[in-house]
């Protein structure tokens, strides 16, 4: 049995590791990476990123899309295939599951409600969602939901990909997930430590719905997607499909000693509501992050929460690394890169930006073991190449 948490960090060795790409003979090579129109290259040399996503599909990933923006220019590239059966190229503006990058959207929705005076960051969650937590449960604040200092326990679920495949179409409600998690002991007293999990954001999604009186998907569309003209971004609710153009995601499964790639594209995301269920595209993610960091989604007073780390230790003993929706990635010289990664079966996603937005990057990789303990080699190569260009 395992405790269900989201993927929490980049692989540090991605900056220094030379990776070997192994292509299985049963899969033919795709055309070279394609650069999208409307992304002006300037003097930017995308060579490192082209190399990072070369050779797809292979045993590690079937496709990759990458976008990078620097003061020298912008580049968007895609390689690999839309699906293994047709071997067609990845469609332009392909949509994908963004996994825990959803948390950035959810944090923005909650902070908008704070800016409107409809809730307070210091408000007890129990005041707004009475009965969700046990009567004797210690006070959990709205801020603690967003910065992973709430201590709400995660559910314990069966290990193994076969169980996951057998239950891929199950439908969960947020309340069911919370009740299942509460069968486990509380991790720590709220506000005393930090531990990255989905639970705070599942509760935050319920909070958005309770305060607004509308479904999370509607508020995401009304407050963020439509104002920013994000044509590819939506919360799928109970629909297990990815609507619109997209690349298929696959999961490697070992059966009778042989590895099979199972199509993981159609999969219910109701187990990660408001924490990992949103669908988007590279262009939409770049538009969103740019507007967010510029203060056009959340007012500056509340936006500061997204760049503030709580003054508590992580459960591992190190310093806190997670703010409201983002992760702090220190750079040489004292600068911080603000990142968020996400994974769902078949899909790996990442976004990163400097605080001033001069450097931004996004990627989507259809990794064949996206929920594995180790980050895919392709994702490591992309991260290393992008940070090298920074």
Keywords:
390 residues; alpha+beta; Beta-lactamase; 7-stranded antiparallel sheet; 13 strands; AmpC-like; hydrolase
What does this entry look like structurally?
With 390 residues, the protein is of the alpha+beta class. The chain has a single domain (46-387), classed as Beta-lactamase. The protein contains 11 helices and 13 strands. The strands form 4 sheets. A 7-stranded antiparallel sheet has the order 2-4-3-13-12-11-10, with helices on both faces. A two-stranded antiparallel ribbon has the order 1-6. A two-stranded antiparallel ribbon has the order 5-9. β7 and β8 form a beta hairpin. α2 (102-115) packs across α7 and α6 packs across α7 (199-212). The longest helix is centred in the first third of the chain and has 14 residues, at 102-115. The chain is globular and about 55 Å long. The model is unreliable at 6-35 (pLDDT under 50).
Number of helices: 11
CATH top-level class: Alpha Beta
Overall strand count? 13
CATH homologous superfamily (4th level) name: DD-peptidase/beta-lactamase superfamily
Helix % is 25-40%
Low-confidence stretches: 6-35
C-alpha-based Rg, rounded: 20 Å
Q: What is the element string, with H for helices and E for strands?
A: EEHEEEHHHEHHHHEEEHHEEEEH
Distance between the termini: 40 Å
Structural class: alpha+beta
Quick one: biggest sheet?
Answer: 7 strands, antiparallel
Strand portion: 15-25%
CATH topology: Beta-lactamase
Count of all domains = 1
Mean pLDDT: 91
Shape designation: globular
Pfam family, one: Beta-lactamase
InterPro entries: AmpC-like, Beta-lactam-related, Beta-lactam/transpept-like
Domain Beta-lactamase-related: 74-348
Protein name: D-alanyl-D-alanine carboxypeptidase
């Amino acid at each position: 049995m395992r405790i269900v948490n989201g993927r929490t960090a980049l692989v540090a060795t991605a900056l220094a590791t030379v990776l070997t790409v192994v292509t299985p003979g049963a899969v033919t090579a795709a055309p070279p990476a394609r650069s999208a129109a409307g992304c002006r290259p300037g003097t930017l040399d995308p060579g490192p990123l082209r190399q990072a996503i070369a050779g797809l599909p292979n045993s590690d990933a079937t496709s990759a899309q990458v976008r990078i923006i620097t003061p020298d220019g912008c580049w968007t590239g895609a390689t690999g295939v839309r699906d293994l059966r047709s071997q067609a190229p990845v469609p332009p503006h392909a949509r994908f599951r963004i996994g825990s990058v959803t948390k950035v959207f959810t944090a923005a929705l909650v902070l908008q409600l704070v800016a409107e005076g409809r809730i307070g960051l210091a408000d007890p969650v129990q005041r707004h969602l009475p009965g969700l937590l046990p009567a004797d449960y210690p006070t959990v604040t709205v801020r603690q939901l967003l910065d992973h200092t709430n201590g709400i326990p995660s559910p314990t679920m069966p290990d193994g990909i076969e169980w996951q495949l057998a239950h891929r179409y199950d439908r969960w409600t947020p309340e069911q997930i919370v009740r299942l998690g509460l069968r486990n002991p509380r991790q720590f007293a709220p506000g005393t430590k930090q531990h990255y999990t989905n639970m705070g954001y599942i509760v935050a999604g319920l909070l958005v719905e309770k305060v607004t009186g509308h479904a999370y998907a509607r508020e995401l569309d009304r407050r963020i997607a439509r104002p920013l003209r994000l044509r590819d971004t939506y919360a799928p609710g109970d629909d297990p499909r990815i609507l619109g153009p997209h690349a298929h995601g696959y999961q490697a499964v070992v059966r009778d000693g042989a590895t099979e790639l199972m199509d993981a594209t159609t999969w219910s995301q109701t187990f990660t509501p408001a924490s990992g269920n949103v669908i988007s595209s590279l262009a939409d993610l770049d538009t969103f992050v740019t507007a967010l960091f510029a203060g056009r989604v959340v007012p500056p007073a509340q936006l500061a929460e997204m760049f503030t780390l709580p003054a508590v230790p992580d459960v591992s003993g190190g310093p806190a690394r997670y703010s409201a929706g983002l992760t702090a990635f220190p750079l040489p010289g004292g600068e911080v890169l603000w990142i968020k990664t996400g994974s769902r079966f078949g899909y790996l996603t990442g976004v990163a930006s400097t605080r001033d937005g001069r450097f931004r990057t996004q990627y989507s990789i259809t990794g064949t073991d996206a929920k594995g303990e180790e980050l895919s080699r392709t994702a490591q190569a992309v991260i290393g190449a992008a940070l090298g260009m920074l």
